[in-house]
TrEMBL record:
Domain Thioredoxin-like fold: 467-538
Species of the source: Candidatus Anaerobiospirillum pullistercoris
Protein name: Alkyl hydroperoxide reductase subunit F
InterPro entries linked to this entry: AhpF_homologue_put, AhpF_NTD_N, FAD/NAD-bd_sf, FAD/NAD-binding_dom, Ferredoxin-NADP_redctase_2, Thioredoxin-like_fold, Thioredoxin-like_sf
Keywords, comma-separated and alphabetical: Flavoprotein, Oxidoreductase
Pfam families cross-referenced by the UniProt entry: Pyr_redox_2 (PF07992), Thioredoxin_3 (PF13192)
Function: Serves to protect the cell against DNA damage by alkyl hydroperoxides. It can use either NADH or NADPH as electron donor for direct reduction of redox dyes or of alkyl hydroperoxides when combined with the AhpC protein.
Domain FAD/NAD(P)-binding: 8-300
GO molecular function: oxidoreductase activity
Region Disordered, residue ranges: 322-345
Length: 549
């Protein structure tokens, strides 16, 4: 191996829209570029079911949009790597990106590590998370049908999500810390005129209290009059709190290495270069007035143009020119399917537009997998059986079997070619946002499956005691797939682990047992309950923290 095999013109840390756009531009300009992503390419936008404001694209999902970006970049010659970056050495002409799979070198580095939803910090926020406090309207709105809701935040997200929540709630009250909304006037006016929404400007949530059944009261502070009052729902019912209060940048990798502002966003110039020569930043990790996919892609394009100049200068200065891979190859699609509508209304489980993606998965399956349907004598069981038959008829890599035993029917269990169980099952009908994860589950059960970081693989293989994982989801949940896919991946690689996914809407006794008012809900060994999305590395860390592994 040449000493320059791990030398790149540019390394991009983070595979969201900004990073993928920069990779596309750099690769098309014939520079060697690598995109390093910890868990899943696409970034935050992948959890968005419908994107309707990206110019030139009338309507698509966040996942489909970013998958197209990834393929475009790879088609031009960009390289991708799934691994975790643990350190950055940014001094000198050649920067070093330290990962769990070794040290990579580049003339320029682009930081696109994104941001995560912000916690407000009111008393009771952690205590009632998943049991009254929620952060995703599409995921959790249905659990508050007929109840009153508080929505925290005054931006675009809070306004949009408040209107969405009126589908379920009897009443929505928005608490805005300032004296006006910070979103577009047209959206603010629509909110103000909605008959089921009331808005309290200059108000903040200080605390919530309640019982095992949920939140029963809240203390609300008027920051203009300095008065507080107690909020209770009608008839002393429980109510929900939805938080949409902005984001926190993921800048821990660069703290003390590049200049940050008081909110820990990276400071850049007009070319998106930081105060460290050759180090750039783009996307939600930067200071910006509008956080949208279109601004992230613009960041990536601007940074790429400047990084080209850095790389060209370094070629002349060092005499080192990284070898650019061929750009003539067609990028394979990731083995994942699009969202399958939960109610298609045409009696067909697999639509024609899904076939190219499914065929790509079937072609990469190494062994046959049996879909063992545990069914009763009810309409839902008959629906699951018919859908699994339709799916299994598409490929000789899928077999169908029907049995009548088991709890929480109906469900489909994945069985290996040798007749042993994979430990993976879905209770209900896998559709909506869970269709993609289901397709991945039998792909992963068929052989080597999706590539994962070697360090994470070692951790999974080392699990030597039985772990029972349950994940309760909603078919409309955009935050559930990451946790579902991570939990199933662990089960596919270690027989000590079983992972069962449940459509929470079908099993009210499970919702009551685990006091579920938010999804995804993670239950470990029937005792440890937590809420919120987790990627593979985060799930493994959580399992260690509760001594489950």
């Amino acid at each position: 191996m040449s000493a320059n095999d791990n030398l790149y013109d540019a390394i991009i840390v983070g595979g969201g829209p900004a990073g993928l756009t920069a990779a596309l531009y750099l690769a098309r300009a014939r520079y060697r570029v690598l995109v390093v992503e910890k868990d899943r390419f696409g970034g935050q936008i992948t959890i968005t079911h419908e994107v309707v404001n990206y110019p030139g694209v009338e309507s698509t999902s966040g996942e489909a949009l970013t998958e197209t970006m990834r393929r475009q970049a790879v088609n031009f010659g960009a390289e991708t790597l799934l691994t975790e970056v643990i350190d950055l050495r940014l001094d000198g002409d050649i920067k070093e990106v330290v990962t769990t799979r070794g040290v990579l070198r580049a003339f320029a580095v682009l930081i696109c590590t994104g941001a995560n939803p912000r916690r407000v910090g009111f008393k009771g926020e952690d205590e009632f998370r998943g049991r009254g406090v929620a952060y995703c309207a599409t995921c959790d709105g249905e659990f508050f049908t007929g109840k009153e809701l508080l929505v925290i935040g005054g931006g675009y997200a809070s306004a949009e999500e408040a209107m969405f929540l009126t589908r379920y709630a009897s009443k929505v009250t928005i608490l805005v810390r300032k004296d006006s909304f910070s979103c577009a006037r047209s959206i603010a006016e629509e909110v103000m005129q909605h008959p089921k929404i009331s808005v309290l400007f200059n108000h903040e949530l200080k605390s919530v209290e309640g019982t095992d059944m949920g939140i029963t009261s809240a203390e609300i502070y008027n920051n203009k009059t300095q008065e507080t009052f107690k909020y209770q729902a009608k008839d002393n019912d429980t109510f929900g709190v939805f938080v949409f209060a902005g984001y926190v940048p993921n800048t821990s990798l660069v703290e003390g290495k590049v200049a940050l502002n008081e909110q820990n966003y990276i400071i850049t110039d007009e070319n998106h270069e930081t105060n460290v020569p050759g180090v750039f930043a783009g996307g939600d990790v930067c200071i910006k007035t509008l956080r949208q996919v279109v601004t992230a892609t613009a960041d990536g394009a601007l940074a790429a143009a400047a990084m080209e100049k850095v790389a060209a200068k370094m070629h002349d200065k060092t005499g080192l020119v990284p070898e650019v891979p061929n750009a003539t190859r067609k990028a394979p699609e990731e083995p994942r399917a699009s969202v399958l509508p939960a109610d298609q209304g045409n009696g067909k489980y697999i639509t024609d537009d899904l076939m190219p993606q499914l065929n790509a998965v079937f072609e990469r399956m190494e062994h046959a997998v049996t879909l063992r349907v545990h069914a009763g004598d009810d309409d839902r069981s008959r629906e699951l059986l018919a859908d699994m038959k339709e799916l299994s008829d598409l490929s000789d890599k899928l077999k169908l079997e029907q049995v009548s035993d088991g709890e929480y029917l109906p469900y489909v269990e994945l069985v290996r070619e040798d007749g042993t169980s994979t430990g993976m099952a879905f209770h209900g009908v896998p559709e909506g946002h869970e269709f993609s994860g289901f397709i991945l589950s039998f792909y992963n059960a068929s052989g080597h499956g999706q590539p994962i970081d070697e360090k994470l693989l070692e951790q999974i293989k080392a699990i030597d005691k039985d772990v029972n994982i349950k994940v309760l989801v909603s078919l409309s949940c955009t935050m559930c797939p990451d946790l579902v896919i991570a939990a199933q991946r662990i089960a596919s690689l270690n027989d000590h682990v079983t992972t069962h996914i449940y459509d929470a809407g079908l099993y009210p006794d499970l919702r009551t047992k685990y006091r579920v008012m938010s999804v995804p809900c993670l239950v470990i060994n029937d005792t440890e309950v937590s809420f919120g999305k987790k990627k593979l590395s985060e799930l493994l860390e959580y399992l260690r923290s509760i001594n489950a592994i």
